[in-house]
Amino acid sequence: MAITVVGSVAYDSIETPAGKRERCLGGAATHFSLAASFFTGVRVIAVVGEDFGPRQEAVFAKRNVDTRGIERAAGKSFFWSGSYMENLNEAKTHQTDLNVFAGFDPKIPAEYADSQFLFLANIDPVLQRRVREAMPGVKLVAGDTMNYWIHDHKPALLEVLKGLDILLINDTEARMLAGENNLVCAARIIQAMGPQTLVIKHGEYGASLYHKVDGRESFFKVPGLPLDEVVDPTGAGDSFAGGFFGYLASQKEQTPEVFRTAMFYGSVMGSLAVERFGTERIANLEAAEIEARFKIFRELTHIG
Amino acid sequence: MAITVVGSVAYDSIETPAGKRERCLGGAATHFSLAASFFTGVRVIAVVGEDFGPRQEAVFAKRNVDTRGIERAAGKSFFWSGSYMENLNEAKTHQTDLNVFAGFDPKIPAEYADSQFLFLANIDPVLQRRVREAMPGVKLVAGDTMNYWIHDHKPALLEVLKGLDILLINDTEARMLAGENNLVCAARIIQAMGPQTLVIKHGEYGASLYHKVDGRESFFKVPGLPLDEVVDPTGAGDSFAGGFFGYLASQKEQTPEVFRTAMFYGSVMGSLAVERFGTERIANLEAAEIEARFKIFRELTHIG
């Protein structure tokens, strides 16, 4: 079943110990939709400027991502530049130019209306809520956020959380949102805010699923892949979300086993994404590489 | 097959957010041998003072741990006091009194000579090496160390590493020992120092196994158990080592699958140990509790 995703389509300038790239295609909705496209149909809602041309369009087209919801506005696209020279787990932001994103007013094309799955990528919670309310009939809603919205826009974010089934968040953000250091207790506090399922990401240590099975608390963990080089962490979390939610949406029923498998596909896509700069790895991936990586995760975690 | 372990038998005064205990039985060899005793026979080499009495002796006796190698010396036993008030992952040491341990000269009882498995708990590498050399016929040798020995006694430690099959170490120590931040690269550097198998512990994030299967690099990961309360982390690493090495020693062959299962049993014993102060939990454990916890780890990590 098709996913509609709302979020940023942007240009990123990135420097890591492995090198640098100027103005490569990025943005949460881009990374999410490319990763999810290996599992199901994906429809994007975003805004870009006049600098978004046929070369960028072709990246989405190659993966059959529906871009009819990407609005073209006068001006420049969202631009971010950052580096990971000291710590691959945390970007140091050098510049953020919202550009056309500053006036973003998400419009949902009529063709997207039958989407059963909605992903609210990390944008202003006011916009997340607007899209959520415009698509009341969806079956499953997942969302992402970041420390800035938790810290400075908490009331708006709390409204969004009420409408989410699944929240994806990292450990620092989960602790900040819950005001609680123990992650099991933090997860319970966040579940009481709305989302019954939490995916907490631990950077190089993998990710945890906190949810309920038959009314009882249930946990599932996927480790980080041991990597001897991380070329570019940008978009790893969005690629994880794309693999996770894409797999969920591809399955008829979202059983506990489907959720566990989705955690693996999330980790597969996140671990592949960091092997090249920007979208280079996922945009050019073969389906067989996904299955090969899935097998590696299985061997990394399963006894027999 | 029986394990001989050399290390500290001590008294600990511990404060954590869950409370405090004065002079409870502790020490690496104590925690290790109690945990390992659920899997195989264990023989301890240590030194204690005149304050080590029948009550402490009874803790070992209940678990059938062979204490003939625990020497009684004039004076007081090793004493440590510390707290974990701000960070459950790292103890703040208030006091360390080596006492009789300062003059420890490990003697191996004749009855221990046929041990096939040797565990060198975290003590002065000069003593670790002496015990290793006195037991040249053992089949498998594992050892532990800590930042102090890595930083201040590196040449002696490097000699010990040459005689180890398995090194258990935490991430910070692994990075310090290898002089390398990426853990996969750090593991390779440490493997070149001697131990072909590394168990790297990640605190609440679990542990990783770095070894070789059919001459190829192989990895295995066990997550940390989601715990909503940690009563006392003291001895968690030694209990992990006891479960891990105890299970290995209990099996006829140490196949890759046995190593993976051993990582689970290590995590089982470590996660149980932190539920009470000192040795309280492991000393009073039932075998069925181990299997129940093993099942929880399996559900936490296995898809189907």
Strand content of chain A: 25-35%
One letter per element, helices H and strands E, the order of chain A comes to EEEHEHEEEEHEHHEHHEEEHHHH
Low-pLDDT residue spans of chain A: none
Q: How much helicity do the residues of chain A have?
A: 25-40%
The number of E-state strands of chain A comes to 13
Strand order of the largest sheet of chain A: 5-4-1-8-9-10-11-12-13
Q: Describe it for me?
A:
2 copies of one chain form a homodimer. With 304 residues, chain A is α/β, with parallel strands linked by helices. Chain A is built from 11 helices and 13 strands. In chain A, the strands form 2 sheets. In chain A, strands 5-4-1-8-9-10-11-12-13 form a 9-stranded mixed β-sheet, sandwiched between helices. In chain A, helix 6 crosses helix 7 and helix 8 packs antiparallel against helix 9. The longest helix of chain A is centred in the last third of the chain and has 18 residues.
Describe the structure concisely.
The structure is a homodimer of 304-residue chains. Chain A is an alpha/beta fold.
Features:
four-stranded mixed β-sheet, homodimer, 304 residues, globular, alpha/beta
Topology of this protein?
The structure is a homodimer.
Chain A: E1 3-6, E2 10-16, E3 19-26, H1 28-36, E4 42-48, H2 54-62, E5 66-72, E6 78-83, E7 92-97, E8 117-120, H3 125-134, E9 140-144, H4 147-152, H5 154-162, E10 166-170, H6 171-178, H7 183-191, E11 197-201, E12 207-213, E13 216-222, H8 236-250, H9 256-273, H10 280-283, H11 287-301
Helix pairs in contact in A: 1-8, 3-5, 6-7, 8-9, 9-11
